[in-house]
Write a structure and sequence with these properties.
Elements: H1 5-8, E1 16-20, H2 29-34, H3 36-39, E2 44-48, H4 53-64, E3 71-74, H5 79-88, E4 91-92
Parallel strand pairs: 1-2, 1-4, 2-3
Length: 106
């Protein structure tokens, strides 16, 4: 059997954490943002979310904590763009405090 080694080549990771689906308070992304001392010196944060009141409060929190240069909000991301974001992220941030039955990642 032939294996395409290009598909298995280690991908270079970038210096960002990724939070996907951070549109609701139970996703608890605010607690990660508040703990900026843990991550903001070495990493950035990309948040993929809808345009909800919670997402708007996260954006205001980022401004208040002076993290505008460290946090990026993305909306309406395609599946292919999301795959690229997942593959290049240093780590996935998933601090949810309550989940029903669902898929956390692909």
């Amino acid at each position: 059997m032939l294996i395409n080694l290009i598909l298995y080549k280690k991908k270079e990771k970038e210096n960002y954490f990724l939070a996907v689906g951070a549109s609701w308070p139970h996703k608890n992304i605010h607690s990660f943002i508040k703990n900026k001392k843990v991550w903001s010196d070495s990493y950035n944060l990309i948040i993929v979310c809808g345009r909800t009141d919670y997402a708007m409060s996260l954006q205001q929190m980022v401004v208040d904590l002076e993290l505008k240069d460290k946090v990026t909000f993305l909306h309406e991301v395609s599946f292919n763009e999301l795959k690229i974001l997942y593959s290049k992220a240093y780590a996935l941030v998933y601090p949810s405090i309550d989940e029903g039955f669902g898929y956390t990642s692909y």
